[in-house]
Amino acid sequence: MKKLKEGKQRKLKKSSFLKNIIVLLSAHLFIKVIGVINKIYLTNREGFGDEGNAIYSSAFQIYALFLTISSMGIPNAVSKLVSERLAIGDSRGAHKVFRIAIITFGLVGFFCSIVLFTFSHYISCNLIQIPEAELSLLALSPAVFFVSITSVIKGYFNGRENLNIGANSQTIEQIFRTIITIGLIEYIAQNTGLDTRVMAGGAAIATTLSEIVCFTYLYRYYKSVKREIANEIEHSVNYKYKGIRKTIKDILFVSIPMSIAPILGGINKNIDSMTIVRGLKNFMTETDAKLQYGILSGKVDTLIAFPLSFNAAFSSILIPSVSAAKASGNFTVAKRKIKFSLLISILIGLPSTVGLIILAEPILKLLFPNQPDGAFLLQISAISITFMMLSQNINSVLHGLGKTIVPAICLGLGSIIKLFLNTVLVKINPDIFILGGTAGAAFSTVIYHIVTFFLELYIMQKNMRIHFELKNFVKPIVATIMMAVCLVFTYNSLLSIISFKLCIIVALIVAVIIYAILILILRIFSEAEIKMLPGGEILYRVLKILRIY
C-alpha cells in the first residue's frame, strides 16, 4: 500500500509539473506574440519607427531597473518562502509572509515611483542623453507602485503552485497594453502631427494603465479565494510564531540577494542605453545615434526575447520545485526536472539562433517593412539565445537551493566585462572595425551571457552534482545543422516560385517539422524524458512500434 501511495504521489507531482509547464508555456507564447505584434505596429507606424523605439526603450529600461529595485526579487522570494512553508503544512506561516510582503513592498514601490517621477528630467538629459524620454519616464513612474504589489501576489500563488493566476494576469496585461497603445498612438498621431516624443509617451501611458488593470485582476482573484485560504489557515500544522520584524527579515534575507541578480541584469540593459547614443555621437549625428539604438533596443531585442518565452515556463517552475525538494530532502525528482529543463533549453535555443542568423534580413523585411534595418545586429545578438535560456534555468536552480548571491556575482562579473567592451567598441566607427558602433554593443552582450552561463553552470554542477557537459550539445547540434540545411534549401528553392513572405513562413514550418523528426530519430530524449512530455506515454509506445526506440 505504501509503495502504491508513493507511486500515486509521484504521478500527481509529474502531472502537476507538466500541467504547470503547459499553462505557463501557453501564456508566455501568447504574451510574446501579442508583444511582437505591438512592437511591429509601433515600429512600422509613421512618426514612431526606430526613433520612437529609442525614446521609449531608453525610458523603459530605466523603469525596469526601478521595478527590479522596488520588487527586490519578490516573485521568486515569496514563491520560495511560501512553498517551503506549505511543504511542511504551515499555511498560516505562508500567508503571513504574503501579508507582510504586500505592505513592505507596497511602501518600497511607492517610494521608487516618487523618485522616478522626481528625477525623470535628470535621468533623460544626463544619464541616457535622450531628453525626449522625460515624458515617457513621467508616464511610467506610477506603474512601479502597482507592479510591486502585483509581484507579491504572483509570488504567493506561484508558491502555492497555482501558476494559472500569474499567467492569466500577464496575458490580460499584455492584451490591454496592446489595445490601449494602438488607441492612444492613433489618437496622438491625429492630434499632434506625428510628434514622436508624445507618441512614445503615449506608449508609456499604455504600459502604466495595463499594469493597473493587471493589479485589479489579481486583487479580485485573491478576494474570490480568500475564504478557501482562510480555511487552510485554520487547519494549518507546524506553525511557529514569528514576529513581524523577524518575518520581514526572513523576506529580505531571501529577496535582497535574489534581487541583486535582476538589478545587475537591469543595469546590463541600461549600459546600452547610457553608452550607445553617447558613444555613437563621436562619429555620427545625435539623430542617427538614436536611430541605431532604436534598432537594437526595439526590433533586435524583441526578436531575441521571443524564443525565451518557450523557456520561461521551465525557469519559473524550477524555483518552487527545488525549494520544496530542499525542504523535504528529496532531490531525485528535482534533478530529473532540472536535466529535462536544460535539455529543452538547448533544443529550443540552438535552432532559434541558427534560424535568426540565416533569415535575419528576410525576417526583418517581413515584420518591419517600413523599418527593415538591423540584420547584422540581429545575427550577432542571436548567438546569445541558447546561453540566455540555460542561464535562466540555472539561475532558478541556484535560487531554489538558497544560493541567491551566486547569480548576482556571476552577472556582476559579466556586467563589468560588458561595460568595458561597450566603452571601447561603441566609440569605434564600424567602417574601421566591423564590431564597432552598435555592433560592438551587441557583441559585448553576447560575451556577457557566455561568461555568465559558464560561471553559473560550474557552480550548479558543484552543488547539485548534475553532470552537464559539452557532449550534451552533440546530438542537438547535429539536428540543428541538418535543420539549417533544410531551411536554406527550402527557402532558396521556393524564393523564385512564391512571394518571399510566404516563402519565409513555409521554410520555417518545414524546418520545425524536420527538426522535430530529427529529435526523435537521433533519440535525443531518454525514455523517461519522453514520458515527461504531454502525451509522452502514448508517444513512446508509438516510437516503440516504429522501432525508433
What structural category characterises the helix and strand content?
mainly alpha
User: Number of helix segments?
Assistant: 21
Q: Could you spell the SSE succession in H and E letters?
A: HHHHHHHHHHHHHHHHHHHHH
What is the overall pLDDT average?
85
Low-confidence stretches: 1-15
Q: What's the story with the biggest beta sheet? A: none
> How many strands in all?
0
* C-alpha termini separation: 33 Å
Instruction: Provide the β-strand percentage band.
Output: under 5%
Number of domains: 2
The 3D shape can be described as: globular
Cα radius of gyration in angstroms: 24 Å
Helix percentage range: over 70%
What does this structure look like?
- The chain has 549 residues and is mainly α.
- The protein folds into two domains: 25-227 and 243-468, no CATH class; 472-549, no CATH class.
- Helix content is 83%, strand content 0%.
- It is built from 21 helices and no strands.
- α4 (91-118) packs parallel to α9 and α14 packs parallel to α17 (438-464).
- The longest helix is centred in the first third of the chain and has 43 residues, at 2-44.
- The chain is globular.
- The two termini are 33 Å apart.
- Residues 1-15 have low confidence and may be disordered.
